[in-house]
Write a structure and sequence with these properties.
The protein is of the alpha+beta class. It is about 55% helix and about 10% strand. The chain is built from 9 helices and 9 strands. The strands form 3 sheets. The protein has a 4-stranded mixed β-sheet with strand order 3-2-1-7. A 3-stranded antiparallel β-sheet has the order 4-6-5. A two-stranded antiparallel ribbon has the order 8-9. The longest helix is centred in the middle third of the chain and has 25 residues. The chain is elongated.
């Protein structure tokens, strides 16, 4: 059994997709995202979290109905007693796979799985179109972890001399967050490793303009220093088209 939350909700049981009603999807999604914490969800708290706009008895009734519909699909999906509700141990979750990949990439001593160099599992949005309040923080947390993983992947690939996939990982991180300096720095390091100093400088200049236009901020001196002109080179002003670099 596989619960997919990236690029939208989907439940696969065996070789078939199983369609759940919206209220049952919410329960499965919440339990899937909270499982890594290791805590089972108390029924009352879960009902009030998912149906916070109504009275408690109605919220609890909605939860009971949702659990019944889920267990009609497969009684191994969700386990519930009078006090707690939790996702079945046999259920796989694509977000957990994605975060597992991110964890391996971010671990300096960790060994990578064969598919860890693929960026596909690090870019998909978490439940796009869902406006649940409880998703806001979790969506941003997962996004940030995966951006950092993409940056780490770019550095790993660069050190291995795999410059094209390293560029791809860095650009993917930049697409996810154009203003994040660590992503841009990873891209610059790949260009420098290839000997493309002019392209590295162009990337820093481009980032400086973007950062100034969007936030009225400047890149770090460390990033600018990576592409500083050597002694005796052209006289470079402290500003690029009016954008301060330090």
């Amino acid at each position: 059994m596989l619960v997919r939350l990236l690029n939208g909700f989907r439940l696969d049981i065996g070789q078939h997709e199983v369609v759940l009603p919206a209220h049952a999807q919410r329960v499965v999604a919440f339990l899937a995202l909270s499982r890594p914490s290791g805590m089972t969800q108390h029924r009352t708290a879960l009902a009030e979290q998912l149906w916070c706009d109504g009275p408690r008895p109605r919220a609890q009734a909605s939860l009971r109905t949702a659990i019944w519909r889920i267990r009609q699909a497969d009684d191994r999906l969700v386990h519930a007693d009078r006090a707690h509700v939790y996702l079945g141990a046999l259920v796989e979750v694509d977000v957990e796979r994605s975060l597992g990949q991110a964890g391996r990439l971010l671990s300096e001593d960790g060994h990578l799985a064969p598919d860890d160099a693929a960026t596909t599992g690090l870019v998909a949005d978490l439940l796009p179109g869902w406006e649940e309040e409880w998703l806001i923080v979790e969506r941003e947390r997962i996004r940030q972890v995966r951006i950092h993983a993409l940056v780490a992947l770019s550095h790993r690939l660069r050190r291995l001399g795999r410059f094209v996939p390293a560029l791809n990982a860095a650009y993917t991180a930049i697409t996810a967050e154009p203003l994040q300096e660590s992503a841009r720095a990873a891209l610059v390091e790949v260009h420098l490793a290839e000997g493309n100093v002019v392209e590295a400088r162009r990337q820093v200049d481009q980032y400086a303009r973007l950062l100034w236009d969007e936030m009225r901020l400047t890149p770090s001196s460390e990033l600018v220093g990576r592409v500083a002109w050597p002694a005796g080179g052209p006289e470079v002003a402290k500003r690029l088209d009016g954008v301060p670099l330090d």
